[in-house]
Specification:
By secondary structure, the chain is an alpha+beta fold. Helices cover 36% and strands 15% of the residues. It has a two-stranded antiparallel sheet with strand order 1-2.
C-alpha cells in the first residue's frame, strides 16, 4: 500500500494546441468586430482541454458578454467556427484531420 499523492501527466501532440489557438483567434476576431465589440466585455480566456470523450477532445474557453446578448454572441461565435470548417469543405479537405497537421491553419 502506498501513501501520498500520485501525479499523472497527459501530453498531447500539438493537435489540441492548434485547435485551442484557432478557437482563440476566432473569438478574438469576434471581439474586435465592431458589430460585437460592445457585447463582449473581456478578452476570451482559453481554458484548454476539458474532457476526452468517445467523440473526441472537448476544448473549453470563456467569452464574457453582456447578460442580454449571451445567446446572440454564442450563436455568432458558433457560426464563425462553422464557417472555418466550411472553408475546408470547399477545398475538399477532410475536416476530421484539420488539427492533425501542425502546419494546417484556418485561414
Amino acid at each position: 500500500m502506498t501513501t501520498g499523492a500520485v501525479r499523472r501527466a497527459l501530453e498531447a501532440a500539438g493537435t489540441e494546441k492548434l485547435a485551442c489557438e484557432t478557437l482563440s483567434e476566432i473569438a478574438a476576431e469576434l471581439r474586435s468586430d465592431p458589430e460585437w465589440a460592445d457585447r463582449i466585455t473581456e478578452d476570451p480566456v482559453m481554458m484548454g482541454v476539458d474532457a476526452l470523450t468517445e467523440y473526441g477532445v472537448v476544448i473549453k474557453f470563456m467569452l464574457q458578454t453582456t447578460p442580454e446578448d449571451k445567446f446572440k454572441v454564442r450563436r455568432a461565435l458558433l457560426r464563425r467556427v462553422k464557417n472555418k470548417f466550411d472553408k475546408f469543405d470547399e477545398l475538399g479537405t477532410d475536416c476530421s484531420n484539420c488539427f492533425e497537421d501542425p502546419e494546417t491553419r484556418f485561414r
